[in-house]
Amino acid sequence: MSAPAQGSHEVSVESGGLPAITDGFHLVIEALKLNGIKTIYCVPGIPITDLGRLAQAEGMRVISFRHEQHAGHAAAITGYLTQRPGICLTVSAPGFLNGLTALANATTNCFPMILISGSSEREIVDLQQGDYEEMDQLAIAKPLCKAAFRVLHAEDIGIGIARSVRAACSGRPGGVYLDLPAKLLAQTLDAEEGSRSLVQVIDPAPRQIPAADAVNRAVEVLKSARRPLIILGKGAAYAQADDDIRALVEATGFPYLPMSMAKGILPDTHPQSAGAARSLVLKESDVVMMVGARLNWLLSHGKGKAWGNARKQFVQIDIEPKEMDSNVEIAAPVIGDIGSCVRALHDALGSDWRPQITEWIGTVNSKKETNLDRMAPRLQNNNVPMDFHGALGVLRTIVRNRPEAILVNEGANTLDFARSIIDMYQPRKRLDVGTWGVMGIGMGFAVAAAIETGNPVLAVEGDSAFGFSGMEIETICRYNLPVCVVVFNNNGIYRGTDVNPSGGDDVATTVFVKDARYDRMMEAFGGVGIYATTPDELSRAVNKAMDSGRPTLVNAVIDEKAGTESGRIGNLNPQSAVSRK
Ligand code: ADP
Ligand code: TPW
Ligand code: MG
User: Fold this and answer.
1) pTM of the complete model
2) Angle between the 24-34 and 157-169 helix axes, to the nearest 10 degrees?
3) What is the signed CA dihedral for 410, 108, 105, 488, rounded to 10 degrees?
4) Rounded to whole angstroms, how far apart are CA atoms 360 and 378?
5) DSSP E strands: which ranges in 327-467?
6) Cα of 14 from ligand 3 centre, angstroms
7) HSE, side-chain direction, 13 A CA sphere, residue 221
């Protein structure tokens, strides 16, 4: 085994009149601290055990997980919440691979994070001689992230971390891989030389001011609108330009649709929110302004049935020029950071302009009212076993009374219903499966949300979704985090009633153990477990958990017949040879 001996970093103290020396371990930690990074999410092991240990000794918060994927998701959402790259630290080969799902997901979602993995000896890896956990990690990471770097000499650690920070944060944010071979960590260097080699990244995400002609072109298009729509995406939430965005939206008077994680930039109860008239505004609008949102599958690629036949002109604000025309023609691209773009547009619209959209607003509002009126009684139902509406009606009230709480959400039906039913009131309070619809973000996001914000966290999880990261409730208990997990237990993926089409003994592939007691898992680690079968019990349990701040898991028993296949995206299933009911 070629990793450094445990404790080898202790060479950094001055002894016997010799010049002070430092090493790779210390330089990595000092470089991270110099760049404002306070937390590392990790799973320890060779060759990075001492790195975590030393980081903790040097005053960093080092949060140790049970599986690297969840440490990675925690790092990614830290990046989203703070605009500083979250750090995930893993061991070589298998630990590195476990972290990659999170790295790729962060890149896809435009979250800044750095996956730092220890690796084994270059000489042995490159000759494929079979080192302990041998793998050419840099090559494997490259296609899955924005940038990938390796540092071979201790004096380059400062530059390596600086490049990683800047690559993660600047322009369109994303994931970065940083490869640190075991030998590097043990390398020594004169302490003064080492300290001179560190680099503080000045202005990691520089403002990018949109060109005046691009702004004027956009203003012309916006002023021509008779049935306008604004779509806010999670890029707008990430940008932390909340006041400027609100000012522009209100100055236009245009209806707006928040994408899932953009809910709460303006409160969902805002009179201009068109969330409850989504189908109508997509179909009927004539001018659509995208703000930090992409025209990907989540918006039916900007064309087809969902968008109707009316001719549309798109204005798009984004920091990434290549995003323009990705799916449809963009009539007015506005390239820059969202804060600068939104302010420039607001100025250029001027204060005397009045939109001519009274009729459109009337149409949108009447559709909204109809839909909200239809929904209201369903949210108050007291059915037992609970259906999604009854259970989510309760959680909706709880979030209204606790707007600072962070809502983590995954599953299929559990995700789709919660997204439309639970109103959000503050920016960056809803964290979910994002662009890929990936299961497994739940507990990693919950841990980081609690650590980074100190706010209470409510994680609303499908029973299948929860299973992807369920072991991390031990992590939640270990750090005593104010997280309340509600498992929507309908005995399976989408629902619990499928049968094996062959008639054989194995249960259907989507079905789990009936009436599993997820609440008892939480009790196993010293947290609070509650079993809830009625909306009343659910309400009491969650309120109690949120008041106490204690790690809690509420097993909410949901009617196993209530869900539909793939939630709202059943249409994306390819035709199956086996007929499904
Ligand atoms: P949603 O899923 O909510 O629709 P997406 O993840 O598809 O949102 O889109 C986010 C977009 O925001 C990306 O195209 C990204 O380039 C952009 N973006 C991220 N941060 C900024 C920023 N600070 N300024 C401008 N655009 C940004
Ligand atoms: C990493 C496929 C999408 S949704 C889902 C799976 C397995 C679980 C749905 O069941 P759940 O919710 O959570 O119980 P509910 O309310 O409908 O019963 N692997 C990954 N990501 C995805 N998206 C899947 C598989 C999937
Ligand atoms: Mg389920």
Assistant:
1) 0.96
2) 40
3) 0
4) 28
5) 332-335, 406-410, 430-432, 457-462
6) 59
7) 27
Ligand 2 lined by 555 (C-beta under 6 Å) = no
Pocket test of ligand 2: the residue of 409, 439, 469 to mutate, having most ligand atoms within 8 Å of its CB, is 439
Nearest alpha carbon, ligand 2 atom 19: 439
Residue 248, Cβ density class (10 Å: 0-12 exposed, 13-18 middle, ≥19 buried):
buried
The H or E element spanning position 181 is strand 175-181
Q: What tokens does 87 get?
A: 């750090």
Span from the CA of 151 to the centroid of ligand 2 (angstroms)? 38
Dist CA 20 CA 12 (whole Å): 6
Measured from the CB, is residue 417 less than 6 Å from ligand 2?
no
Query: How far apart are the CA of 408 and the centre of ligand 2, in A?
Result: 15
Enumerate residues 6+ apart whose C-beta is below 8 A from 320: 171, 172, 335
Nearest-Å Rg of the Cα atoms of the chain is 25
- Please identify, by atom number, the ligand 2 atom nearest to the C-alpha of residue 563: 17
Q: How many alpha carbons fall within 13 Å on the CB side of residue 476? A: 35
Is the bond leading into 44 cis (omega within 30 degrees of zero)?
Answer: no
Written as tens digits, the pLDDT of the chain (581 aa) is 344 444 443 445 455 666 799 999 999 999 999 999 999 999 999 999 999 999 999 999 999 999 999 999 999 999 999 999 999 999 999 999 999 999 999 999 999 999 999 999 999 999 999 999 999 999 999 999 999 999 999 999 999 999 999 999 999 999 999 999 999 999 999 999 999 999 999 999 999 999 999 999 999 999 999 999 999 999 999 999 999 999 999 999 999 999 999 999 999 999 999 999 999 999 999 999 999 999 999 999 999 999 999 899 999 999 999 999 999 999 999 999 999 999 999 999 999 999 999 999 999 999 999 999 999 999 999 999 999 999 999 999 999 999 999 999 999 999 999 999 999 999 999 999 999 999 999 999 999 999 999 999 999 999 999 999 999 999 999 999 999 999 999 999 999 999 999 999 999 999 999 999 999 999 999 999 999 999 999 999 999 999 999 999 999 999 999 999 999 999 899 976 555 44
Q: Which of 410, 464, 495, 497 has most ligand 2 atoms within 8 Å of its beta carbon, as the pocket-test mutant?
A: 464
User: What are the strands of the beta sheet with 313-318, ordered from one edge?
Assistant: 256-258, 228-232, 287-291, 313-318, 332-335
CA distance 289 to 32: 38
SS3 call for 352? coil
How many angstroms separate the alpha carbon of residue 461 from the centre of ligand 3?
A: 8
CA 73 remoteness from chain centre: 7
Q: In residues, how long is the chain?
A: 581
Q: Residue 255 in contact with residue 230, Cβ under 8 Å?
A: yes
* 567 vs 493: CA distance, rounded Å: 10
DSSP string, 232-279: E-HHHHHTT-HHHHHHHHHHHT--EEE-GGGTTSS-TT-TTB-GGGHH
How many Å apart are CA 508 and CA 493, to the nearest integer? 10
